[in-house]
Amino acid sequence: MKRPFDVRVVLVRSLYERNIGATSRAMSNMGMDKLILIAPQCELTYEAQKAAATGQNGLQNRVTYSDWNEFLKEEPESIKICFTARDGKGRQVRDIDEVLTDIKNHAPQFQHQSDLPYTVHLVFGPEDWGLSAEDLEHANFCACLPTFGENWSLNLAQATLLAMFSLRKAWGGNRTRLDGGKARRAPQGLDGINPDQTLRTWLEEMGFDITRQRKINVYTVLRRMLLQNTPTKKELVILETVLQQSIRKLREWKELQKNKNSD
Question: Where in the chain is the domain with CATH 3.40.1280.10?
Answer without folding.
Answer: 5-171
